[in-house]
Amino acid sequence: MIEEKKISCHDVMQHICENLGTELDSEKCKEIKAHLEICSHCQSYFKSVEVTIDCYRKYNVELPPDAHKRLIDFLGLEE
Amino acid sequence: MKENIKLIEEKELIEKAKKGDKKALSEIVKRYEQTIYNFSFKICRDKNKAEQIMQETFYSMVKSLHQFDHNSKLSTWLYRIVSNHCLMMARKLKSRTFVSFDDDDNLFEEKFTADWSSLPYSNTENEELKSILDDAIQKLAPEYRMVFLLRDVEGLSTEEAAQVTNLSVPALKSRLHRARAFLRKELNEALSK
Ligand SMILES: [Zn+2]
């Protein structure tokens, strides 16, 4: 007899990291979604992973004009 | 539609550059230098090294552009070159030790409870946050950083990112999910202090 095991927060957290934001409709994903709707712990985990990614997206550096000139020189090109 | 016109234009530009047209080459460099520099920085977290990697990347591009066959986007091809240069640079330096993922369960442990809603993440000019982000990502081996940055930060598709890194899609996804969970955990710890 197969014992039916309820999905755990740990499963959900792992799933979030594996499939962040991707719409999947396997049985497991439906369970995950159902769990997410009622578990505030997993909701905030989901949010925090999104925020983490967002932080890295927003942290950018601008190419300094000098570095552009050095690159063009280095390659023997002209403007 | 606009995207299509841009690609046709780019194809012409590449063909001109292949024939040694320096203006066309400069134009390609100008289109991608910001992206390449920014990406290099995101891998190595050092502006001088990022500039060096950018120079090496475009030098390689100029040398091997004749091999570019339009089977992928030029940007994907460039990501591949820059990724290789970043890995070479990391191997040369290899002074750091990186996190190992022998025990995945640690990734999901919840010892800290940061208040993520008050995180000043909309303000990445915040120097403290920047240094937290730099520290966290530098604990990841470059192979993991690369996957996270290509897929989640630069926004390549899973297939494109796999192509760039020479990984199978399942292997890429496994690195990606560990990188995500690890960075999230590091931020959570740092912000709980
Ligand atoms: Zn839960």
Task: Summarize the structure in words.
- By secondary structure, chain A is mostly helical.
- Chain A has one domain (9-18, 26-75).
- Chain A contains four helices and no strands.
- Chain A has helices at residues 9-19, 27-38, 40-58, 65-74.
- In chain A, helix 1 packs parallel to helix 3 (40-58).
- The mean pLDDT of chain A is 84.
- By secondary structure, chain B is mainly alpha-helical.
- Chain B has two domains: 2-92, Rna Polymerase Sigma Factor, Chain: A (Orthogonal Bundle); 105-191, Winged helix-like DNA-binding domain superfamily/Winged helix DNA-binding domain (Arc Repressor Mutant, subunit A).
- Chain B has eight helices and no strands.
- Chain B has helices at 2-18, 22-44, 47-64, 74-93, 127-138, 142-153, 158-165, 169-192.
- In chain B, helix 7 crosses helix 8 (169-192).
- Chain B starts with a helix and ends with a helix.
- In chain B, 35% of the residues are buried.
- Chains A and B meet through helix 1, helix 3 and helix 4 of A and helix 2, helix 3, helix 5, helix 6 and helix 8 of B.
- Zinc ion binds at residues 9, 12, 35, 39, 41-42 of chain A.
What's the short version?
The complex is a heterodimer of chains A (79) and B (193). With 79 residues, chain A is mainly α.
Helix content of chain B: 55-70%
CATH topology of the largest domain in chain B: Rna Polymerase Sigma Factor, Chain: A
**H/E topology pattern of chain A:** HHHH
Helix/sheet category of chain B: mainly alpha
Number of helices of chain B: 8
Query: What is the approximate shape of chain A?
Result: elongated
Provide the gyration radius of chain A in Å.
22 Å
